[in-house]
Amino acid sequence: MAPTAPSAAKSASPSQPSGKSEVADLKQQLRQLAGSRAPDADDQRRDVFKRVISCMTAGIDVSAAFGEMVLCSATSDVVLKKMCYLYVGVHARNHPDLALLTINFLQRDCHDQDPTIRGLALRSLCSLRVPNLVEYLVSPLATGLKDPSAYVRMIAAVGAAKLYHISATACLDADLPAALKALMLSDPDAQVVANCMHALQEIWTLEAAKSEEAAREIETLYSKPVVFYLLNRIKEFSEWAQCLVLELVSNFLPSDNNEIFDIMNLLEDRLQHANGAVVLATIKVFLHLTMSMTDVHQQVYERIKAPLLTLVGAGSPEQSYSVLCHLHLLVMRAPMLFSSDYKSFYCQFSDPSYVKKLKLEMLTAIANESNTYEIVTELCEYAGNVDVPIARESIRAVGKIALQQYDVNAIVDRLLQFLEMDKDYVTAETLVLVKDLLRKYPQWSHDCIAVVGNISSKNIQEPKGKAALIWMLGEYSQDMHDAPYILESLVENWEDEHSPEVRLHLLTAVMKCFFKRPPETQMALGATLAAGLSDTHQDVHDRALFYYRLLQYDPAVAERVVNPPKQAVSVFADTQSSEIKDRIFDEFNSLSVVYQKPSYMFTDKEHRGPFEYSEDLTNLTVGAETTENAISAQRYQENDNDLLLSTSDKEDNATATSNGSSASTYNAPSDLSGPSLLSSQIPSETSLINPGAPTYSSQSNFSLDDLLGLGVPQASAPPPAPALILNSKPVLDPGTFQKKWGQLALSLSQESSLSPQGAASLMNPQSLIRHMQSNYIQCIASGGQPPNYKFFFYAQKDGSTAFFLVECIVNTASAKAQIKVKADDGTAAEAFSTLFQSALSKFGVS
Amino acid sequence: MISQFFVLSQRGDHIVFRDYRGEVPKGSAEIFFRKVKFWNDDEAEEAPPVFNVDGVNYIHVKVAGLFFVVTTMVNVSPSLLLELLQRIARVTKDYLGVLNEDSLRKNFILVYELLDEVIDFGYPQTTSTEVLKSYIFNEPIMVDAGRLPPLGPAAMFMQGTKRMPGTAVTKSVVATEPGGKKREEIFVDIIERISVTFSSSGYILTSEIDGTIQMKSYLTGNPEIRLALNEDLSIGRTGSSTYDYRSSSGGGAVILDDCNFHESVHLDSFDIDRTLHLIPPDGEFAVMNYRITQEFKPPFRVTALIEEAGPARAEVLLKIRADFSANVTANTIVVQMPVPSYTMRASFELEAGAIVGGSEHTLRAKLTFSQESHGNLTKEAGPVNMNFTIPMYNTSKLQIAKKSKTYNPYRWVRYVTQANSYVARL
Question: Following CA atoms A266, A268, A269, A275 in sequence, which dihedral angle do they give, to the nearest 10 degrees?
Fold first, then answer.
């Protein structure tokens, strides 16, 4: 029960007594009352019991009074009984011997005439959680499931699940699951049915890891007869149980469209329920059922909009937050469908900041030609807000809208107006945005630079804003009259600059400026390099050294490194892969939506629900939240689940194909902060720099990106080696795997087959893992239950750093495997896939 | 599956603590409290209602200044848990009459009794006040609502949130009246929370009504109640979701964008005669929630002006006109206007009081700045935000006529309009 932290005991309020003497006192009083037959004994006992439970709640250890409590428990007073059971339930585990004393009267109560007493006793009996008392549980439970009172049956059903947790074998040996299943399909009381479902799901899910039979039993829960039986009774269930039924239905695979429409018509009125949980569960059913019917799916979006918005307005802020999170998910999937509802997402004065943040993101997503003006006007109002974090977010939102629009003219003006507001954080945020905007739309440089040039770097305190300003000074030093002098004054204050990020940018900016305006910058460059070389920060020092040696080697080369011709960034990297987004969508109406993470990232394996695809990447942290790195416009082409592509997504894909893997990578200032990687190359300067090579800049970008793990495929990659030989001992840690999997594009997706013997012998993932290992293909994660297994493999090309990553879903029933290959070197993917499939097909054949 | 349920006071004391599954490590309540207290400390942000610490999910709502929290290890529906927490708070209130720290502390045994029936092994069971009656044996210990300071430190949790004006009824559903006989009565509240944003030139930019018909029944014998709404009520806006304020609709027809209903409501004849049939369950519940974006007449016109008046000085002029009839009085009025951060001194000329319908109030303020203002003053100050409650006033004109065939209990129908977000920009 309550934690026994001493702090809790200390902080106990006056009404909650504390301390050891108190417990001793209580023991004493209990002992006196134990045998008392005084007329008011029960009242006195009530008082003492109350104090005991009060102590327990406050976190004081009252387990010492266990014996005395049990002695006092023989009473006919229900209130006393309940308090006693509560106490015993909390402490029995630590006092198994004394707990035995309570068994007697609990068992007797299980046969009481009053169903309330029977139910109460049965519930308490099952809550003792003492393994060696299991023998006393089974028979009352079996009787309880057949009790004439629904109240008792309802408690017995949950009791079966409790028993399973104390002793799985006792539960299974007594054949309780079968009894539960029978009850689930026949009991007239809906809550009994619901509790049977809860218990069965829990038992079978845990059991499925060990037995195929249990896995099949889970399947039967989603079978047509069960689903329709439950659906027909749905209105009998309590609202909470309705959610359970709806969750189950969302896993049902209908055999034809008529079934889908039947279910949807039946559930239509659930969308008008005042309970948000019921509405969201219904929406999940609708969305999942219509996945294969694009137009109906879209109609569902239109249909659920109004109920969702009503829920947002109706409940407490907490309730509307959860609904808003789900609305956010839908908006992000299909922004176009919500573009006319933009006013619903305006921030209200009373909204807590976690709600405002979500709304700003939604406004950003749904901005299009028709509503941008209104949205940006509204966002500009928030920029002056007293709530500083929200003001910042609003400015960022305006910037993001500018980056995703075609006609940014007006927005650029608005951004520049922010700079005139002369608020520290506003200026800093705006500068970062102007920088990004210039990287995408270099044509705006003249307008922006005129304004940016007027900003004194002394007024900017925040490193991010300062770094952005310095980047612009370096990049546009030919157009900014004062650039060399501003940079020079910044260098003079090198010692006072605390942020290494700013110092790194300063180094690069001075270099850039030097090549554009050598006479004015020469002095400053010398001072900068000197300051950089004596800098205590490793990265700053290394970068200064790198520049220094580069200049020493050949200034022309240095210029090409520092000031290569740049292409505008077409798309900034999305923060989440579409795969992760799809996974979250599959888990609609769960915590995943609130956290914006699939469940395997935040739940333990043992606590996965029955509906989740188990996956072994549990403990990996995913680099999903990549910073604003501008990696090239590589995107996932697999749109199988993306029925509703947003416009921006479509655009992305278009640019990805046209712009492809050309050397459009462009190093954002923040990207260069990988100099420690660069410095490792310095000893072999000549190998890195190959003067005269026409494709120099693209190559250097490539190797850079490769070092950074960005793995951009090269346009002119050499033809693959005829035979692919794999490294026998590749090393890849799970973190890198996950990161790569998120970043790399899909090279191949194929269906392959296993030998029948192989499929039959695949009883657990280990056998296949060992087999693949003998073929130099390593497994990094596996999971699943028969007949479906899922594996993540990797392999490395011998003598190269290029990895191959494979997701392989094996169905042993059909002896088929779905293979998805991602590769650092896309050209070798085909050869690798052949190798992989041949290895797979040999599994079990020996 | 819920692992634990607990209620914490504002200071972090455990008032109730129930562990259903014994799977969450010790100290969860302390971890929760610290996290909520020090969420993103430097930016003074509020903790979101749902968060995860070391694999344990904490879901909480704040009611009457108390934290109602559940923990879970599995990926469950957040809405389900939040609705459940809110419901537990409401059921508790039904039993205790008043819900606050004092009443909970006095009745914690009763709350444990409730919790045993509401959740079993982490699975929600019944939350019906009526069904629960047969399993609850403790008598509630009454707390005198009047004796307590109305808000106290708890007020910080109520400020600015969508707080319902608690029904004035502070009577437990189980307690018997001093006279012995229970009074047959039913309370119906039509609560509308309105959001309006005025532009700097006084135009209405956005407006919305979030309404609730709330009922609290003390009737015995489960009689059927019929609630008749406006006959010309229509639901669903034509050409939905576009905000075309059709000026012609001012004729009085009420158009709801959308609405939802409590389970007990039968809508069989709703499409024909706009009547809701229901057998009200015991306790407090929302019969219907609705949302209106149709144009309505805002109860207050707010205009605000800030002007430079010499170097490092400015003048603020704030006008509020009450556009409702004179027999209605608005109360708990608070008007806030953030001023530039470099303001040193402000002097007021205030001419106010309780605002009676039809009246107009003006506030003049002189601001003195520590520095000369640069650029645009309107971007440095504002917007003006207003909070108010207007009893016996309803913005949407939604009306209720309650009919019951043979049976005439005491019935109380009340209308309340509250500000949710009432903003005038500069």
Answer: 110
Note which residues in 271-290 of chain A have CB less than 8 A from chain B.
272-277, 279-281
Of A78, A240, A422, the CB nearest to B84: A240
| CATH code (residue B334) | 2.60.40.1170
pLDDT for B374 equals: 65
What is d(CA A732, CA B31) in angstroms, rounded to the nearest whole number?
35
CB contact under 8 A, B17 and A609: no
Q: Where are the domains of chain A?
A: 6-212, 222-314, 317-440, 734-841
Contact B422, B194 (CB under 8 A): yes
On whether both B73 and B109 belong to a single domain, the answer is: yes
Mean pLDDT in residue range B386-390 = 88
| Statement: residue A10 has pLDDT above 50 | no
Mean pLDDT of A279-290: 94
Cβ of A591 and B108 within 8 Å?
Answer: no
Per-window interface: A 192-211 vs B, CB < 8 A: 194-195, 198, 202
B27 in any annotated domain: yes
C-alpha–C-alpha distance, residues A328 and A592, integer Å: 13
Report DSSP state, residue B229: -
Closest CA to A191 of A140, A248, A153, A135: A153
Assess: ipTM above 0.90: no
Note whether B252 and B399 are same-domain residues.
yes
Kindly report, residue by residue over B217-245, the tens digit of the pLDDT. 888 777 888 888 888 888 876 444 333 44
Place of tokens 């829990």: A202
Residues of A in contact with B63 (CB under 8 A): 316
Q: Which of B62, B108, B102 is nearest to B85 (CA)?
A: B62
Q: Enter the tokens of residue A609.
A: 């629900």
Question: What pLDDT digit, counting tens, does each position of A152-201 carry?
Answer: 999 999 999 999 999 999 999 999 999 999 999 999 999 999 999 999 99
Q: What is the DSSP letter of A371?
A: T
A58 contacts B14? CB cut-off 8 A: yes
| B422 vs A contacts (CB less than 8 Å) | 349
Task: Tell which of B33, B57, B121 to mutate to test the A interface (max A CBs under 10 Å).
Answer: B121
The chain A residue lying nearest B121, using CA atoms, is A158
Res. A668 pLDDT band, cuts 50 70 90: very low
- CATH fold of A6-212, please? Leucine-rich Repeat Variant (1.25.10)
pTM of the model: 0.76
The CATH code for residues A734-841 is 3.30.310.10
Please answer yes or no on whether A274 and B208 come within 8 Å at the CB atom: no
- How many other CB atoms are found less than 10 A from the CB of residue B258? 23
